[in-house]
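Attaching the record inline, Q. Sequence:
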Amino acid sequence: MSSLNFQNDTAGSSWISIVKHYNHPDLKKSWFQFSSSFLLYALSWVLMYLSFSVSYWITLALAFPAAGMLVRLFIIYHDLGHGSFFRSRKLSNWMGLFLGILTFTPYYSWSTNHHIHHETVGNLDKRGIGDVWTMTVNEYLGSSRWQKIVYRFYRNPITLFCIGPLYVFLIGNRFTKKGMDAKGRMGVYLTNAGLVLFTVSMTLLIGIKAFLLIQFPVIYIAGMLGFWLFYVQHQFNPTLWARSDTWNYKIVALEGSSYYKLPRILQYFTGNIGFHHIHHLSPLIPNYNLSRCHRENDLFNGIKPLKFWPGFKTVTLRLWNEKTQEMISFRKLKLCAPIRVS
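Structure, as predicted:
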């Protein structure tokens, strides 16, 4: 049962009236956020290059703030896909294609999958696109030995946060996928062409060694941070998953998406995406309005924050237990001798 009672019409009307005050982009704020973020990312790249001939340890240290700025640019890219950053769809698409090159992520196909994620998040009957693969206890217990091995490998933190980013950003995003429409395929081709042009230009400017030893740690660290954020936004306790017949958009948005309360500096680098419950309630709210929406409305007082250090405990969560309505670890599964639910 939801602790945030959205089942009645009054609460529904309240929800709609609240978000409409925040779901309009401010052109000045959007351009300032984009330009300042891009310039700071470019500056961090320059500093990494200047330090390259002095000490590569300094270069690696600078890769962390550079990766933070790339994550911030990815949040802008993400907002562009939702149409929440600029009113102009044409401007959003062109900017998205550009940032897709910087983030090694094709814009159209990623945005399409992300929209599906928003439409199906927390729905046990519609898993599979834009999600972290999550089995229920019964599904896992009913799986073959090989399926269990594959699932355990996938859910291992090394796979999720170390191998996954390398594969997705460097390999997976370079290819079209079955079922992609013409626009999605063209987006992959344009992104790849942009990356080739970027790589060749930077190689001619600073040399292939410097380029690879600067770009690789930046995209890798940013990728790991991005994967972590996406994971912790939906894999936590208490969260909410439901079958289609009881799935409710508003309830799942607020209880199935975390309020990941980060330190101020990390909130900056991550573009307020820790207010993920607000983002899922209304994807049209630009990232710079998320914290204000949460702060100014009593409706969200009942949302329990997931704080920074406790958030790391979520890496042990592996399965959804429909009986107890919680995420559990493999260890808890083994200790509790679970009863199957139909």
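Confidence is low (pLDDT under 50) at residues 1-12. DSSP finds 16 helices and five strands in the chain.

More tomorrow.
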